[in-house]
Specification:
By secondary structure, the protein is α+β, with helices and mostly antiparallel strands. It has two domains: 2-122, 3-Layer(aba) Sandwich (Aminopeptidase); 130-296, Aminopeptidase (3-Layer(aba) Sandwich), CATH 3.40.630.30. It has helices at residues 14-18, 30-40, 89-105, 140-145, 149-160, 171-187, 195-204, 251-265, 281-288, 318-324, 329-343, and strands at residues 2-6, 43-44, 46-51, 54-59, 62-64, 72-75, 110-114, 127-135, 164-168, 211-218, 221-231, 234-242, 270-276, 293-303, 308-310. Strand 6, helix 3 and strand 7 form a beta-alpha-beta unit. The chain is globular, with a radius of gyration of 20 Å. The two termini are 31 Å apart.
């Protein structure tokens, strides 16, 4: 079998070929590749193992060049999980060695994986996160019965307070999400993602029926919004934002419940809640409250010079988070525009 490097945006039937492979996800698609490439200027290097006219295995990666954080390959940046697609360990090893050879030519410091435990069980992960996935095939009645009591109460509270929800795919809904996202990121001590990134999300995902936005409003003011992606029979909760001033109204719970109902009504079989940092117990409990199954997501980091897997160097300094949390939103937006492409 031949291994060929692809840019999914230049491979006309990439998504069609991908659908034939077990283990494919939204994050393997050309739509997500387009968002990462056009938002941040990353170069796609998706290694595909071909047998005649069919792809048998895929290792997606983005080539990141940064004067701040160095050159590296990441599979994939700003992605909750992205498992290598391979039928067995031998296929993965061929792709892995081919990617290392490519990375050495491009002077990468590291090769990073957002997943891959099935093939890297004996390697030490660089980071670990919790994932949560909700089985939608049981139907709404059982899903409702499976809610934690506090989750059910929060949904009813929002309904009684006349919080209205809308499922949308308009530029205006994305603009509302971005406004709330800037507030939420500041609350977490982080700059928001560049607006260009969400413009690309809208262009390549939301506007092309590959995702949707759920909005919650009170007296015609948007107070919470979530962004979801979907591919095949799976829905992914990717981004959430809200106005903290209305947190006690529990609009976030109602937004999520509307997404669950919409996903069931449209025949999807699962809803993935994305990744959660181990230290974020509040978010972990929020996701568990929907009856979702919890599992571990492992990331791996290969040092090209040492030729071994290594631990992550460290997270954002808490002092920086305190500073970011006090900056005006316009300043935070400029900071995000400058820094995000270096952080993938």
């Amino acid at each position: 079998m031949n291994i060929i490097s692809h840019d999914p945006l230049e491979c006309e039937n990439w998504d069609e070929l991908l659908r034939e492979l077990a283990g494919n996800s939204f994050f393997h698609t050309s739509a997500w590749a387009a968002v990462l490439k056009k938002s941040y200027g990353y170069r796609p290097v998706y290694l595909a193992m071909w047998e005649q006219s069919a792809i048998k295995a895929v290792l997606p990666c983005m080539d990141i060049s940064s004067i701040l954080t160095g050159n590296r390959g990441v599979s994939l940046p700003f992605t909750d999980y992205c498992e290598p697609i391979a039928a067995n360990a031998a296929q993965f090893q061929e792709l892995f060695q081919a990617m290392i050879a490519l990375g050495k030519k491009r002077n990468w410091k590291y090769l990073e994986f957002r997943g891959g435990e099935a093939f890297l069980q004996n390697r030490e992960p660089s980071e670990c996160y919790y994932g949560h996935i909700l089985d939608l095939t049981t139907g709404l009645k059982k899903l409702s019965a499976g809610l934690r009591d506090s989750t059910r109460r929060n949904i009813k509270k929002a309904e009684k307070l006349n919080i209205e929800t809308t499922i949308s795919a308009t530029p205006q809904s994305m603009a509302e999400f971005c406004r709330l996202n800037a507030l939420t990121r500041r609350e977490h001590g982080l700059p928001p993602q560049p607006r260009k990134f969400f413009d690309c999300v809208f262009e390549h995902i939301i506007s092309r029926n590959r995702g949707f936005i759920v909005l919650a409003s009170l007296d015609k003011s948007i107070i919470a919004a979530n962004v979801y992606f979907h591919a095949g029979d799976k829905v992914i909760y990717k981004y959430g934002a809200s106005d903290k001033a209305y947190q006690n109204l529990r609009a976030n719970n109602l937004v999520m419940w509307e997404a669950v109902k919409w996903s069931c009504d449209n025949g999807f079989k699962s809803l993935c809640f994305g990744r959660t940092e181990p230290e974020n117990e509040g978010l972990r409990q929020f996701k568990a409250g929907w009856g979702a199954r919890e599992y571990l997501i492992k990331y791996y980091k290969y040092d090209m010079q040492q030729e071994t897997f290594v631990k992550k160097a460290g997270d954002i300094n808490p002092a920086f988070k305190k500073i970011f949390g006090k900056l005006p939103v316009p300043v935070l937006k400029m900071t995000g525009n400058l820094l995000y492409r270096h952080m993938g």
